[in-house]
Design a protein that fits this description.
The structure is a homotetramer.
Chain A: H1 6-25, H2 32-39, H3 43-50, H4 53-78, H5 81-93, H6 101-113, H7 118-139, H8 145-166, H9 175-194
Chain B binds a DNA duplex through helix 1 and helix 3.
DNA sequence: AATGAATGAGTTTTCATTCAT
DNA sequence: GATGAATGAAAACTCATTCAT
């Protein structure tokens, strides 16, 4: 029994289902049917709302990026001073809603597919540049601009590497250890920067 | 014009072609036909020698892992003392034969697919554990065993993160900068370890 | 022009088409495409409903067995007394819907394939045991239990042999002669049993 | 190391391998490779000697028919009088070399394929007619010509049915019981014929 | 005589996508 | 709004067959 205003509900459900389906079946193998079934609708409806599989996947990636961005922004708004802002970015990357198996799988899949999926590459690039400029901006108030770039790149690589290595792990991701590792890296770099 | 003893030749050619085809078409999209064509043989022959697409891809991953391992082992054999050995592992990860677009694409694709491909996961796990124990062994001669674990994990995450971020980059990978970033990380950690 | 509730219609059509296609092309040679075309649908739809060629063929065999079973049961329900019941079983095996070229071809193909198709063997075994126990039960009211088994086995072998030999014949199967031959065998055996 | 006069050896080996391979894999599924491997040669050689898969299978059937024929002829040559000759034919059909699983499988497969394989049909027809005329000729010396035809057909159907039902059985074929069943049938028919 | 390399045609199978209802 | 029916294109895979050696 169709209801009014179902569209946003369905879209969200399908995007969530896509994330989980990618995690369960793998990015390459996942089918529209699996995603739709997981969302409790027919494959036809998924097409109706998204137009194509590629568009659904792009929307899914956009969603992952904006969720992660929101986590960071929310923490940034509560941070005081550049050092806290840097920590906010780090913590945001390992927020409970983000640093969990299904999201990690999907996120990395899009990351790696970025090479072949033009849309994925573009979206990811925008996000990465914004994140970097945020970090650099804050770090530059603590160390030289030149070093700020290096520290930002190092921290970003460390974050991405930790996400990537999570794939080989078994069991639940450990956000606290992850954050500690990145914070430790930044702290060491800043210390030196001041020496 | 069939010749004798072509099997190993073909197997090597197909594995090489797989790496390049994955880079060109994307891991999900690549077909046996494309790989075979690139190796200059028919798709049937690829099946004849590898049994299935999955087995060809697994063999390809195994090859990538062993090549990387060989680079590291070769550098380790020329290293003197634990500090040089750590550098050997780092440099091996960015050796010219390894840190190039096609290999990076394929490697990451397997990394991410590890979740769904049981064989890939297993192979990757074996490799990662061996690498880690190597690093820890050498680092433990420079800092406490506890810190050796932390540094090894941090360096490994940094290496993987740099590989991953290469996907978003344009142009040729810059091994020197990559190595400098990881060496810098290790140097900072060891300095502190001695303080 | 899709309609609702087509699944059972298509399944039945595909099973019927399978019987005819086996007869026309031979069990080994028949393809899903031929079966689907004969049913007026695409090969994709046949897979959609049956999952695989093997499952379609298994369903076809199940259908042949149940049709034959239904013919016998229907005749048994109208039979009075054990002697008539035995005749009902015999006549059922040569009922017009059963003893015709396409069904004979398909039936025998499954019979012979039974060795390699585990499912086919199982289904056939169930059917054969049920038929035998039916026959034995009735025959045992006319002759000793020991002889009932022998007569049931002989009659069953005769029936199967007549079906098999039909393959070498040209022209329409002759049910009347077939029935007469088996009835004659049973009659002779029962006569002696009473002597 | 090729030897002179290997051809007949290879041909026999390939035919024997075909019978066993059909039994093991099923008539539809068997491949030239499996047959050749079982004969200890390459698939190419099988083609070299037989020209094609179909010709190898036809040769195999011809071989099965001639072996069975030889068993019967050999027994006929030792038989005295028409009654013994009838028994010779029956016993020949269940000779140890014939009535065993692999031969039964292959034989029946050819029987059933007779519909689509023109050669199989022709060969089988020739054999069946010769067998029948043999039987009729002897039976006609014991009962009326008219009844001789009926008894020959009944016995032949019974023999074929017993072979066919062997497919559903597990364990080794029981030639003694099979022979007893057919002999019993013939005996009963002859008794009546004399009454 | 015999092999193993190689292919190409053909078959099964999968799925995104479309569309009538 | 939503579904299930249906397709067609593309892919994996198999295998008989050919041929150089």
């Amino acid at each position: 029994m169709p209801k009014l205003g179902m569209e946003p509900v369905r879209r969200r459900a399908l995007i969530g289902a896509a994330v989980e389906a990618i995690h369960e079946h793998g990015f390459c193998e996942v089918t529209m049917g699996q995603i739709a079934a997981r969302a409790g609708v027919s494959a036809g409806l998924a097409h109706h709302y998204f137009g194509s599989k590629e568009q659904l996947l792009t929307a899914t990636m956009r969603h992952l990026l904006s969720e992660l961005g929101a986590e960071i922004v929310s923490r940034l708004s509560r941070a005081e001073g550049p050092r806290q802002r840097v920590s906010a970015v780090i913590a945001g990357n390992f927020a409970p809603g983000q640093f969990r198996p299904a999201v990690i799988s999907a996120w990395l899949a899009f990351y790696v597919q970025a090479e072949s999926l033009a849309d994925a590459r573009r979206l990811h690039g925008i996000y990465a540049r914004r994140l970097r400029s945020n970090l650099v901006h804050d770090l530059a108030r603590l160390v030289s601009r030149e070093r700020a770039f290096a520290v930002a790149d190092g921290a970003a690589a460390l974050v991405d590497g930790i996400w990537l290595r999570q794939v080989l792990r078994v069991g639940e991701p450990d956000a606290a250890t992850a954050i500690a590792m990145v914070e430790d890296y930044v702290a060491l770099q800043l210390e030196r920067g001041r020496m």
